[in-house]
């Protein structure tokens, strides 16, 4: 597959620009009853995300393309099927190549719903 299925890309679940840290990436999210969230991201150009932290753990899996997690001076390249966990409070950044798709699970509320 070259894209997420249409049912996963409903505009009501689209990540708003306020919660989007990087341009040329489109995301859609779902929220559990406990406030945890999952986001599905597609990157449309080669990008770098700035160093940031979360107050919760983050799990991610690369579905398509190449996603590099950067923690300190250590880079971990993820390719389709590779998984990674970023512990809460860990400063991290990332790079990805155009066309990369990833799924992220957040152990807390990262995205605020703006289009109800």
Residue runs with pLDDT of under 50 for 5 or more positions:
none
CATH class, named: Mainly Beta
Q: Count every helix, treating DSSP H or I runs of 4 or more residues as helices.
A: 0
**Overall pLDDT level:** 91
Please give the alpha-carbon distance between the first and last residues: 29 Å
Gross geometry: globular
CATH architecture: Sandwich
Q: What kind of oligomer do you see?
A: single chain
- Structural class determined from secondary elements: mainly beta
What fraction strand?
A: 35-45%
Tell me what you see in this structure.
This protein is an all-beta fold and 116 residues long. The protein is built from no helices and 9 strands.
List its traits:
116 residues, Jelly Rolls, five-stranded antiparallel β-sheet, 9 strands
Write the layout of secondary structure elements.
Elements: E1 25-31, E2 37-43, E3 47-52, E4 58-64, E5 67-71, E6 74-78, E7 83-86, E8 92-96, E9 101-106
Antiparallel strand pairs: 1-2, 2-9, 3-8, 4-7, 4-9, 5-6, 5-8
Task: Put the structure in a nutshell.
By secondary structure, the chain is an all-beta fold. The chain has no helices and nine strands. The chain has a single domain, classed as Jelly Rolls.
